[in-house]
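Slide 14.
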Amino acid sequence: MSRFLDERGRIFGKVNVVDILVLLAVIALIVFAVVRTQGSSSPTVAAVVTFRVEQVGQATVDVLLAAHGTIRDDGGTTLGKVKSATAQPSQEEVVNPLTGKLETQPSPLYQDVYITVSSRVSTSGELDRIGGVAMQVGDKVNLVGAPNFKVAAVVTKVSK
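Slide 15: predicted structure.
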């Protein structure tokens, strides 16, 4: 053992064991960072992604219906280009005063806005990468777009 490791902790009297461990940790960190920043190796396909912005007032509805151009997430990643935006009254539950049961009816105040976006999607297992961001139906995302809006939305549909 003394020939392999000297009294100062150096291998064959030349390299310190701690230096080697630090070097290996740095290499592992670099490999991890490269793998995480590289997208999926699967090919991208054209897709249409629908996002729902829930229960917003009329002023926000008007801005979202005028949405155009590129949609990004709040990190700045491009998710796609706006194809269309539609609105419909939000559904709310109210107690029927005659029966005492909950009933669903359209809200008189709030609307849900559906924003349809043309995008490029790659699939890795069960997970889609929309514009390079891993998402699936039901995930929440903050959308940023023109004319000057930032809203919380939910992925409702991915059609490839």
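Speaker note: Residues 128 and 134 are 6 Å apart (CA to CA).
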